[in-house]
Amino acid sequence: MVAAGVMVSLIPGIGSTLPLTKSPFFRRSSTISLRFISENTKRLEQQGHAIRCNFNHPGYQIQEEGQISPWHDIPLHVGNGVFNFVAEISKDSNLRMELATDELYTPLKQDKIRGRIRCNMKWNYGLLPQTWEDPSSANPEVDGAFGDNDPVDVVEIGSTCAKVGEVLRVKPLATLALIDEGQLDWKIIAVSLDDPRCSLVDDVHDIEKYFPATLTAISEFFRDYKVYDGIPGNKFGLGNKPANKDYAVKVIRETNEAWTKLVTRSISAGQEFITWTLLNASSACS
């Protein structure tokens, strides 16, 4: 049984410089919102895993009503090399939440791939809105691997525990070219602008100094996290090392361009579930 979670609208405040984008998924109404869904929400709330949205931006106020897609309607760019990040899994959580790309408005839902719901995530984990890893495009710099048909993932390494659905402003520091079951699955390593150490780190070489052993721990986690399902360990491209900030920004730019082509229907969707989402979203906008 699927229970509806919290619905929160984001309304630009006076003088806001970060308007929400009207993508083809935008539902025409006077207000706009994030709709997050979880299986058995009541039980999750009793366990302290309530589904919440907190758009952490001073130019917006919260109001209940309306719907948007957290993937397609939250803007990617904040400005000055800063990006919006939507948290799917809270730091130190064992509850695996994931964007449901095959559903209208792409809500966050409990992921039960292979029957497991636990993930033991040690960092805030989520996605960059308005990005897409194109499954029809082979990357010559990463062993010719094709994109995994999802938005780009982010590992936010700050000290604060983000709520599921919370939108944080983050600064990218590095990226890992994870090859997960043969597909390219970029992992952007970033830090929240609200973290006390944010001003101290600006690139991959700063991470070890101010966040000791974090890069190694992240690499080992994503290398081995499917081994328990009987799947061989994952591999990494780019010389098996994290790439620097400039490369991470390049990945973000290219996947944002791919997303733009996807939602403007100028590129093939690659898999039926993306096409299904596009068609249903179009009908909802009419």
From TrEMBL:
It catalyses: diphosphate + H2O = 2 phosphate + H(+). Coiled coil: none annotated. InterPro entries: Pyrophosphatase, Pyrophosphatase_sf. It holds the Pfam family Pyrophosphatase. CDD domains: pyrophosphatase. Its EC number is 3.6.1.1. SUPFAM superfamilies: Inorganic pyrophosphatase. Its cofactor is Mg(2+). It is an enzyme of class 3 (hydrolase). Keywords: Hydrolase, Magnesium, Metal-binding. Gene3D superfamilies: Inorganic pyrophosphatase (3.90.80.10). The keyword S-adenosyl-L-methionine does not apply. Belongs to the PPase family. This is inorganic diphosphatase.
